[in-house]
């Protein structure tokens, strides 16, 4: 189809479409229960997991951003109990996904196995004995955390049975699908054999790779609302060629359409853009949210820059003297703009949410400090903290501190 025949979507509308697809702009429920949590996870497709807990672990934050304060124990029951309706796999990165979605990732398990050489002499020399021992342990004992396996009675002194080798092998077996995750205990994974976690109906289901990729692309477009080929492929970390083929199938089926978005050029040429046929096209979006670094709104940095003008990276692994904004910096969404970023820390012992730095973005306006102050008070209360303390670092710090008083 010639680009001149494409419908044109303005960048502002594209931004609103994307936010609406992710669940922003809807009235918050009076009470957040299991139904609302399941509905949100189904809408965005997955919750990415990260262990950093300086403010709050990442998978809790997209829910708070969209639904407001809620009981984290309810989400734990859906994601971290041994028979929870969600389990873990490498969907984007490590993420909670629906238990019954496991067959959609069998092709990835197979690719991981080929990549890391299971069954080869190199695998057997590096991990084979450890893998066989671990599988026998899980068969005999049921789900176990790595720390259960590695207590003194189980750890041998040598290259095969040390912590790093056991953990590394468990993680590889998890990626191959030979091991599954049977929930978490105090955030530590519990490893198990697949038959100890999944119903036989799930394990016996086979989905052809082409069909699995098409379904994942369908979900990507629905979750994004609108996106380029790279946006859509990135959501479930798919390759471009099969993603493009799947988009062609979905376009033929009327589930997506090609559009043009001015300013979304690639190498000076209009980038192909796909719109979910049933995407909402809101005239406005009302929102006030702290975004995890691993929220789908910002996790693909090129998309965040293109859509919001946000040049964003995580500085956790940057030496402190070289950090520009801070350690655990969260973008701040107000309506359809990203207006600020804040470096947060929950001081649970003192009962204080510390804003270690606060920075205004180009889209900030006169309402930004007051709205952000209100949001931070809400976040502190959700975290069980009694106060917000704003430190004197960043271009927004002084105004934010005044708004807190």
Measured by DSSP, the beta-strand proportion falls in: 15-25%
Radius of gyration: 23 Å
Biggest sheet record = 5 strands, mixed
| N- and C-termini, Cα separation | 57 Å
Shape, principal axes of CA atoms: globular
Q: What's the β-strand tally?
A: 17
> Count of helical segments?
16
Report the structural category. Answer: alpha+beta
Explained architecture:
The chain has 405 residues and is of the alpha+beta class. Helix content is 40%, strand content 19%. The protein is built from 16 helices and 17 strands. The chain has helices at residues 11-21, 34-44, 61-67, 72-79, 106-116, 121-141, 146-149, 163-176, 194-197, 200-203, 209-224, 229-235, 240-252, 301-308, 368-382, 397-404; strands at residues 7-8, 47-48, 86-90, 94-98, 144-145, 180-185, 188-192, 226-228, 256-260, 265-266, 269-270, 273-276, 288-290, 329-334, 337-347, 352-360, 387-390. The strands form 5 sheets. Strands 13-14-15-16-17 form a 5-stranded mixed β-sheet. The protein has a 4-stranded mixed β-sheet with strand order 1-9-12-8. Strands 2-4-3 form a 3-stranded antiparallel β-sheet. Helix 11 (209-224) crosses helix 12 (229-235). The longest helix has 21 residues, at 121-141. The protein is globular. The termini are far apart.
Provide a quick synopsis of the model.
The protein is α+β, with helices and mostly antiparallel strands and 405 residues long.
